[in-house]
Amino acid sequence: MDETELNIKARRGGMRAWIEAHWLSAGRALALLVQTPLASIMTVGAMAIAIALPATLYLVFANANTVSGHLQRSAQLSVFLVPEMSVQRVKKISAELQIRSEVLTLKVVTPAAAAAEYELMTRGNGSLDQLGGTNPFPYVLLLELDPSIQEKSQLKALLAELSQHPGIEQVVYDQLWLSRLKAIVELGRYLAAIVALMLALGMMIVIGNTIRLEIERQRDEIEVLQLFGGTRAFVRRPFLWTGLFYGLAGGLLALLLTAAEIKLLEAPVMELARSYGSQFHVVPLDILGMLSVILASSLLGVWGAWLAVGRYFLDAAK
Known about the structure:
The chain is an alpha+beta fold.
């Protein structure tokens, strides 16, 4: 047998020993979690809450951004005609607007339809009866504009032209509040990122403190291991697995909490979307998002454990 074959066998033996060492450390860490169920549940629960909060915020603002984009694409121009206009005049103005290249679709809302919608919104409290049976609502033309003109001077020219039309009393364009909604959504996403960063640091502190307490409990055993030649890697290994298990369990529980929170928010969000004429549905985390949450929480658990063990080695060296 030549030297190359001996080196290959030595490497294989080293790899096998490395895998066996990690396997034993993982079993030891898992046994530790089972032996201290209350402490483990509290740590995992704290991590899950810390992860679920930014994950829920991210989903809320991601869905809000989707709604904003949908409304942005379907922005409408509401044209209020002068009161008591004849049907023939309404048809004429509608035809004039319908043939314009800026207008995709046009919908006429009659005074009767507006009154019926008002009664539905006010739950039929009979407030219109106080006006002596008269209908105060004018004809309204709802124009869906070509999205390509919403940021150009052509839009401003259209608004100015409609405002000066003798048969039009008021023109309302919803672009302003959509821009504000978009700005709020962007601010919320930055806020979610800041909250996620702060809670990530908090998670590392929680994991580090839990591991530190366990190190103190096993201090005598660790010192004996080091006296008999136990390396820092050998001492650190089971605690890293403990942090990994904490992070993994916290991430899985956080996904359940996030799913429950999104389920609770789904009904009011859909009701809000319906009020704007949208069939929007809340989109939960996809597979990539779930894997990202689990990976991030597991890494935070390992980092917290690494820092705690590193702190022990620094204190022991003094």
